[in-house]
Amino acid sequence: MSGTVTETTSTTRGLLWLAWRRHRAALTAGGALLLALAGYVLYQRAGMVALLHDRNIAGCRIWQNPCNGMRFAPHDAPSPLRDAYERLDAHRPPLLVTGWLLLAVPVLIGTFVGAPLLARELESGTYKMVWSQSASRTRWLAALLGVPLTAAVAGTTALSALFTWWWWPARDQFAHLDRYATVPFDAVGPAAVALTVLSFFLGAALGLLIARTLPAMAATLAVTAGLLTALGALRPHPRDGGFWWVQWTQAGLCLALAAALAAFCVRRIRRRPV
Amino acid sequence: MTARTVLTEGATGVLWLVRRQQRAFLWTFAALVVALAGYIVWQRVEMVGYLRDHGIDGCADWRTYCRGKRISDPVRGSGPLADAYFHVYDVYRPRLLDTGRLLLALPVVAGVFVGAPLIARELESGTYRLVWTQSVSRTRWLAARLALPTAALVVGTAILAALYTWWWRTARAITLTDVAWGTSVPFDASGPALVSLTVLCFLLGVALGLVIRRTLPAMAATLAATAGVRYGLGVLRPRLMPTRTLVSAADGDFGAIPRHVFSTSWRGMSNGYLTRSGGKIPWDRCSSADSADATERCFTRLGSTGRAYEDIHPASHFWPLQWIEAGICLAAALALAAFCARWIRRRPTGRAAA
């Protein structure tokens, strides 16, 4: 009895070890990028928050007039409030560019991590060897997908948290920057993490269906890009409040779709003849 | 059989193999080009029809009157002419900009999905060894491998860039004057810039695939490299030609310069105030001053007069800049092709892609 348990544990460990060996380069590169970005966000946010406090506009909203006793003055009259917002505008490009870069993360994870995972196994035929081993197919699939998925979720959670933390103090302080636009919405909060999970499973499922690496990657790129565009167009823009409600709803929908895709992968792998 | 026929047959065989391997790419790419070209033509025809129907064709943002009607600074809901203006702004402007962004993805996709796997896959799977033992020289094999995708990419992007330029140039005078023509949309999405950038990114992918010898890492590296190229070109572009300096009246007023000069130029290369001797003091020199008074004191201390200046690229710089950028990209692409040919000649056949 205990023998079976030990065997199961060691098989799992073996599969995990295999997964780690396989993704070592990607995981190391991802970790390094994450650290660099964290440093950048820390630096940028410190500058932005210092400005908000020095100029006394922390908590103000761009459409609020007056705020903290300051007013927008007509045209040429001196206005500390307008000066403050003009200064703050220098922080807008780094924030938006970082947001767009973060938006690329789910797309890249789906294309470069999700799609090749199963497609490569099927294309090269290595799965046949593994399937004849003691581990069941479902466990093989779990180990194959589990390590990169965990890394992707951990990574994007950190990224999304960092970016949300940076953007939140200035969320209502940039003119014409809608909270519900693709950036920042899809780059912050649970929505960003759920998008990564979804695009990862989209890649895996397309890899399984197409069974060839390059076409699967290209298809994943096209589908996730289309998905992001569709989300940006279809998302409701409530007038007041409701931001986190929309965030969690979108995250929930994405995760449900991801779960369906995962179930599809499991079913198809189980039924596939060797 | 003479040696000559064997040689010819060998060569035809390799070319046949190369064509077969690339058929999927060719069909996909052709379908993409046809779809995008169709969309651009349809949108442009529709837009021009709209402009004509509403009497604003040939109008420009910088003119106060068009066909006797006042058009400057339209206010939403103030009349049919303003409504037509805002319709163009709300409907065609975003489509034009989004199409430009989509076209900008072409060089990246050409590098990552076509260039990087082209040789890397052969090296990774070892199939190159079979091909290299044939009678065809490695250089010829490489040339055959590169020729078809390069030709397809050049023709396809040339069609799309031409159509996009054609659409952009009808629309730019209305609602688009705030989009600097030197930024990546529209600049890199139109004219020879798009074509040459695509060729460069494609060869960058090929070269990285050859050096890295594994498909996925080569694709990832190409993605990073193409992003670097795009960024580098953006930094370089304003410096490729000397700018023209616009100078204000003694009180800082630019009113004497016609409005269309500002509206059609790529603005903001540098601006600030002039000294008595005509030297330039850019704004950044006083950017740490934290109030209007402090800024003024700062400029006075640096010896500024009230005369302001702005460095611009006038509209006439668009095509010269396009060709200069295309020249740079094509030269870099040629250098990469030469590097690939050298690298492949020196590689021993026996060594596997370890």
TrEMBL record, chain A:
Domain of life: Bacteria
Keyword Membrane included in the entry's annotation: yes
Alphabetical keyword list: Membrane, Transmembrane, Transmembrane helix
Residue ranges that the Swiss-Prot or TrEMBL entry lists as coiled coil: none
Transmembrane regions: 25-43, 97-119, 140-168, 188-209, 216-234, 246-266
Protein name, as recorded: Putative transmembrane transport protein
Source organism of this protein record: Streptomyces himastatinicus ATCC 53653
Lineage, opening ranks: Bacteria, Bacillati, Actinomycetota, Actinomycetes, Kitasatosporales
Automatic annotation (TrEMBL), chain B:
UniProt keyword terms in alphabetical order: Initiation factor, Membrane, Protein biosynthesis, Transmembrane, Transmembrane helix
Single GO MF descriptor: translation initiation factor activity
Spans traversing the lipid bilayer: 24-42, 102-120, 141-169, 189-211, 323-344
The name this protein goes by in its record: Translation initiation factor IF-2
Organism ancestry: Bacteria, Bacillati, Actinomycetota, Actinomycetes, Kitasatosporales
